[in-house]
Design a protein that fits this description.
By secondary structure, the chain is mainly α. It has one domain (10-69). 63% of the residues lie in helices and 0% in strands. The chain is built from four helices and no strands. It has helices at 14-21, 25-33, 40-51, 55-69. Helix 3 (40-51) packs across helix 4. The radius of gyration is 13 Å and the shape is globular. It starts with 13 loop residues before the first helix and ends with a helix.
């Protein structure tokens, strides 16, 4: 039996996000906190238009934070 310890889901994007945009994910979570009243896809659009994140990276950050915060 093999144990798969790879990170799965939205968090699997975090190393690439940090490398690509030069900020830790905690920075992006703080940015998202400023628009916490927006809907999921509105937050994704905000990250894409205002901060030039790619769709997959923006969506991963939003999805992770929403799942974590319930």
């Amino acid at each position: 039996m093999t144990t798969d310890t790879r990170i799965k889901g939205p968090a699997s994007y975090f190393p690439s996000i940090e490398k690509t945009y030069g900020q830790p994910v905690s920075h992006w979570f703080a940015v998202l906190d400023t628009v916490k009243d927006l809907k999921h896809m509105e937050q994704v659009a905000f990250l894409k238009t205002e901060h030039q994140l790619g769709h997959g990276h923006a969506n991963a950050l939003v999805a992770y934070l929403r799942a974590k915060n319930g």
